[in-house]
Fold each of these.
Amino acid sequence: MSQNQKALFIIFGGTGDLAYRKLYPALYKLYKENYLNENFAVIGTARREWSDDYYQEIVTDAIDDIKVSDQHAEEFASHFRYQSHNVKDTENYRTLLHLANTLDEEYEIGGNRVFYLSMSPSFFGTITSHLREEGLVTENGFNRVIIEKPFGTEYENSNELNNEILESFDEEQIYRIDHYLGKEMVQSLMTLRFGNPLIKHLWNQKFISNMQVTLAEDIGVEDRGAYYEQSGALRDMGQNHILQIVSLLLMDEPQSYHSEDVTKEKVNALKNLKLLDSQNIKDKFVRGQYTTSPDAPGILDYLSENEVNEGSIVETFIAGKVESENEQWANTPVYIRTGKRMKGKSTRVDVVFKNDESSLFDADELSENVLTIHIGPTEGLALQLNSKQVGHVFNTEPISLDYQIENSIPDDYEKLILNALQGDKTSFVHWEEVAESWRYIDAIRTAWEADPSDLFKYPVNTNGPKEAYELLEKENHHWFWE
Ligand code: NAD
């Protein structure tokens, strides 16, 4: 069967950062691998007045590092057209319709359309209703809408946003991107959990002491101060990437890999999360904000970053204890942690197993067995076990079995765009997952808003305030990655 996908992409926000850094390189890689060949075209739209030639130059520039040859890059870019377009202006959609139909014919695309909304979500409703009303949705092919985070800032407005889109497209046609779901080791979680009897049968509260999800960034807010002031770490990373990973860790085995079955189990896992309130928030969640450190001269504190409000109490770090109502996870928390200006850049899951009673060893002689899933920047697995020290003694020592993926891994966006072309929604986020995630996050936000006194400062280049360590220490746990 041919792997060639036929599609016309219409990218709203074609002059933007995401399109340049991620979408054009991803499309080029798919072109290079023959997933896209003759039967595809791209219309980039945005407000700026660009010509087709200039747009094609930009696209060529975006793939400069990965191109096979100048000629190959030019061939690829020749499939791109540009239309200057204010998304609020109905007239523009008519011109767009004409261009779309012309390209559909020229490249024999057969009516398949992918509308990529790489723009502020405040425009999603306007764009989708115009697409439907002005006839850009075809009868003869598939019509899919890809949208980017942030999907609202709380349940209420995300529900409104969703309803606006649903007026023009069905849930089936909506592909909500969480690019962490395109990461190799996140995609590997189900295989790891359900494809290995060795792991599958131990994956419950009887054998697992706790799990730790860390999304650490070593950079600050950079030029995104204004955005971050509206978001903070909880919304920026917690509602989406972290809870997506948590749902994959806690869900029951799905009936199949089909998106309906996977979604069902992920939604159940999210529904089972114990909601927090102002009574227990201080016990279970810590928030922090980075400040200067004598060890890192020249690195600004959050309050001195561009476009950050004076005296802001926006959190740049969170750590929390996430618990499930599901009995198989009774007393086995998932600790989560994310922040800016942490010690290093690392995305990882550490699964800490319980130590057994033993007549041979004292409890403190054995290290914990820990399975680490390295999600980024390197991808792989590590398993910490106890072994006998080599030599004439019978002491124990921890050893680590390591596996690091060395093959080149397709980029997150490359995988997700291909999945969208193939109509495979397993690695996209269903509305119910978004809704359940906001339910959990909103409860924390509301509890924090009731009492803003507990924002702890942490020096840059550290893994958060001491309170984030105490969160685990009071339960005789500790962060495996320090
Ligand atoms: P950007 O500001 O660089 O680009 C926005 C685009 O929208 C530009 O092309 C601009 O011309 C266009 N635009 C704005 N108003 C318009 C209007 N009225 N009519 C027509 N075009 C208009 O933003 P970005 O960084 O490319 O991000 C796009 C979306 O993706 C945002 O929702 C963002 O939150 C999300 N996102 C971005 C990244 C990233 O790495 N950049 C990562 C995750 C999610």
Amino acid sequence: MESHELGYFTEENSAEVVAGRNANAKDARVKQVMEIVTRHLHAAIKEIEPTQEEWMEGIQFLTKTGHKCDDWRQEFILLSDVLGVSMLVDAINSRRPKGASENTVLGPFHVGDAPEYEMGTDICLDQKGEPMVVRGRITDIDGKPVEGAKIDVWQANDEGFYDVQQKGIQPDFNLRGVFHTGADGTYWFRAVRPKHYSIPDDGPVGALLYALGRHPYRPAHLHFIVSKDGYDEVTTHIFDPEDPYIHSDSVFGVKESLIAEFKPVDQPEKVQEMGYEDKYWDVEFDFVLAPK
Ligand code: BEZ
Ligand code: FE
């Protein structure tokens, strides 16, 4: 018998000894996952060769991460976000044919019961910020308009805060809403130009970012969930390419296909036609749904 089969632990055979102990696992998937995690974790420890003090620091980091979690704050998801793991899991689970809209991270600020609006409604309820019109088309992969698609949109305000982060300061449901497309598949609504913001950085994940010389900012974006029965649901953002953090999103959410153009419109007749007093921003972005 080889030493790992006897259960004797050495530095060399450590991963095999541990994985071998799971031979009678009840769930084959759990067994497979733990075999892979054990193999990679042991390889990492062998490469790092931590001191006992360093290992304790790692344990304390995870302990603080757990202690920071409550019903509202999920520090482990934030850790997964800044390590790029959330985006990787999302990419694996949303592989789509070429031409279909791409996914990105959901983030923690979506609410399930946002109000439903008619097309053209202003989702900014406090009139703060630079006016913006967002418009486009929802089509299938062959370019045919998708009727009855649900567009669930939410965004931060012009200071980089979501309504749920500023209860009592912003009106409830500020800058969020649900729209449904008609027969032509088009959508449009009014909002305000969003601003970049920091992910929560007052916990262990923020401390880790600063220790790594990283900033906690996300470039300005609007979140969308676009869905319709029979199609793969798209959870995504559109991004402002002029944002200073567009190439260094702290959670790696930016994809080239999700970059929109924020065009300033200041021709008096266009401004007047849209009912604004001064200039506004025009953002056109189409979504393409892949069959399920
Ligand atoms: C967001 O875009 O809302 C977000 C995503 C990941 C972490 C924090 C916020
Ligand atoms: Fe966001």
Amino acid sequence: MSVTHILAQKGRNIEAIGPDTKLAQAILHLASKRIGALLVIDEANSILGILSERDIIRALVAGSHALEDNVRDHMTEFVVTCSLDTSVGEVMDIMTRGRFRHVPVIADNDVVGIVSIGDVVKHRLAEMESEKSAIIAYIAAG
Ligand code: AMP
């Protein structure tokens, strides 16, 4: 199964902000959408970075004045992405090796979605459930 299947279920909605957004505003955005990361993009929709709740926690360790910092000061600039035909197993590998839980999906040079570790786990559990049902049906038929 590939990333296409995950996006077909969750939709291709992308939550993104500009680099000069204040950290306080980014926190409100994350909370209102109940998500853990935002893509940071420019006017041409190109990816400049990614900001996750972990970046915000690190920033706040320095003091609550960080809430007035711009997102660009705390985002990760080198963003690892995948494509629509990347397999779910490969995405799991990318997340494990990179120690992050969000991977943007690129198609024809555009961002078409973000896969989170929650999406991957949900997909894997559904797969295991259907494998279990198939084995039970096979045994029952024998
Ligand atoms: P996360 O586990 O997604 O909350 O992110 C943990 C750290 O990795 C944070 O510093 C993020 O900015 C960074 N990060 C998240 N996703 C990616 C990605 N796809 N590529 C590179 N860094 C990332």
